[in-house]
Write a structure and sequence with these properties.
The chain is mainly α and 284 residues long. 72% of the residues lie in helices and 1% in strands. Strands 1-2 form a two-stranded antiparallel sheet.
Length: 284
């Protein structure tokens, strides 16, 4: 990148960060915030992972869901951690510094935690995924049991020791919570942005077409879940989150380096999850 190009891009970043435009206008603008996030080849390796071709039968799809549900679940925890960093979720309430980021993250929480379904009812994307598993005949007891334990006050790390949890899923959740427990705002938001919202559409598109050839009465709900994530993340959540990262890191090279590291760690955790799961799928 030439010096003049770099200056032009920095100017564009500053103009966007200082803008008072409405959130929907910000989301519609061309994104120019990614050039400071260094992902190496992690994103390309994840999008090109062989697991997408391995999920090619109903039995393999069910096995995939039984492992992947844990990533769907801990996504919600990562989302709530982002909300804690960007908005006030304690009593008494006090205003957080960035009103725009507060608005945007609460919009994402609304979509992910209580999305509107085709029949007019509402559910979180986790609950929608769980229902999809039930219809498909995939095992839901392990994740339901852990959630019940946590509701009863059992420490999450103790609950995750259950032998019924796929080992690769346990490791993935533990890595997610290590980021959550860091307490670092820009690290948490970067992991959520580049490890989830930015990459999910490119991963899920590879499943949607295949599901169309399966029994719609069995896989219809799962396909709806995938399509909703593609729609929300690709068109709105991803661009919005990238702008929040840019605002949080500003012109601080240390924050950009830490955000990049957190983003890469999140992507590498997913690659490890896919690697281990692919071995199991290949044996089915």
């Amino acid at each position: 990148m030439s010096g003049s190009d770099s200056i032009s891009m920095r100017t564009a970043i500053c103009e966007e960060v200082n803008s008072t435009d409405a959130p929907e206008k910000l989301a519609a603008r061309p994104d120019m915030t990614d050039y400071r996030i260094e992902l190496g080849d992690s994103r390309e390796r994840l999008v090109g992972h062989p697991i997408y071709k391995l999920v090619n039968s109903p039995e393999r799809m069910k096995a995939f869901m039984e492992s992947h549900i844990w990533a769907v679940w801990d996504f919600q925890s990562l989302l709530k951690a982002v909300q804690q960093q960007l908005s006030c979720v304690t009593v008494p309430w006090t205003p957080t510094p960035d009103a725009e980021a507060r608005r945007l993250i609460n919009e994402i929480v609304l979509d992910e935690e209580s999305d509107e379904l085709p029949n007019g009812s509402f559910a979180s994307h986790f609950e929608l995924y769980l229902r999809s598993m039930e219809v498909a005949g995939a095992a839901t007891a392990p994740i339901v049991r852990v959630i019940e334990q946590i509701k009863a006050g059992v420490d999450i790390h103790k609950a995750l020791l259950a032998p019924s949890i796929p080992p690769e899923s346990r490791e993935f959740v533990n890595r997610s919570f290590s980021i959550i427990n860091s307490g670092s705002s820009h690290r948490i938001v970067a992991a959520f942005t580049y490890g989830r919202e930015d990459i999910i559409p490119d991963m899920f598109r590879q499943f949607v077409g295949r599901l169309a050839s399966y029994s719609p009465e069995i896989w219809g709900q799962f396909r709806f879940y995938l399509e909703r994530h593609i729609e929300h993340d690709d068109e709105h959540h991803g661009p919005v989150c990238r702008r929040i990262v840019a605002t949080m890191c500003g012109n601080d090279p240390i924050k950009w380096a830490e955000a990049s590291e957190s983003a890469r760690l999140a992507l590498e955790a997913r690659i490890q999850l896919w690697d281990d799961l692919a071995v199991r799928l290949a044996s089915i």
